[in-house]
Amino acid sequence: MASVASTYARAFADVVLGAHLDANRAIGGLRRISGLLTESVDLRRVWENPAVPAEQKRKLLDAIVLQDGIERHVRNLVAVLIDHRRMHFLEQITRQLEKELDARLGLAEAQITSARELGDPEKRTLEAQIEKVTGKKVRAHFGLDATLLGGAVVRVGSTIYDGSVKGQLEKIREAISS
């Protein structure tokens, strides 16, 4: 039911942007609650059990929110999900919310894989180059792959920019074989 997750994510994105909330903090709060659901079978049973009164479920939510310092707007979204028996969609809603906010804020998610660990100046330079190419602010995630031999491979959405030595060698091999 991707449409359920999309509907809640779009609506909450409206709240986050309309109330000028910190998007990262809101997503972090949702991740925290989602993580607690994953870790605790008992919590999941209580929140998904129709026999437990909604008021008790919300009291439990309020205790978690107070303990973890989660924003009121996030609490309200989770309370709505509890009331409408949609807690099993929380993880999907959180992922969809990230995508929705990224799209609205003009952010691009970039997966950068390099042959070696990059220093902070190299990371910033690479991020700036990706921002220039995409025309969007970039949220980069870095990984390592020694098989690249050198250089880096960047994935932004479905687009791949291959600046690795391995990629260059494969291109040469293809050119020679054809």
The overall average pLDDT, rounded, is 91
CATH architecture title of the largest domain:
Orthogonal Bundle
The largest sheet has its strands arranged as 2-1-3-4
Structurally, how many domains make up the residues?
2
| CATH fold topology of the largest domain | Peroxidase, domain 1
Helix content: 55-70%
Structure summarized in a few sentences:
This protein has 178 residues and is an alpha+beta fold.
Model description:
This protein has 178 residues and is α+β, with helices and mostly antiparallel strands. It has 2 domains: 2-103, Peroxidase, domain 1 (Orthogonal Bundle); 107-177, no CATH class. 63% of the residues lie in helices and 14% in strands. It contains 8 helices and 4 strands, in the order H-H-H-H-H-H-E-H-E-E-E-H. The chain has helices spanning 2-18, 23-39, 41-48, 54-68, 72-83, 90-105, 120-134, 165-177, and strands spanning 107-114, 137-144, 152-156, 159-162. Strands 2-1-3-4 form a 4-stranded mixed beta sheet. Helix 2 (23-39) runs antiparallel to helix 6. It is elongated, with a radius of gyration of 21 Å. The termini are far apart. The mean pLDDT is 91.
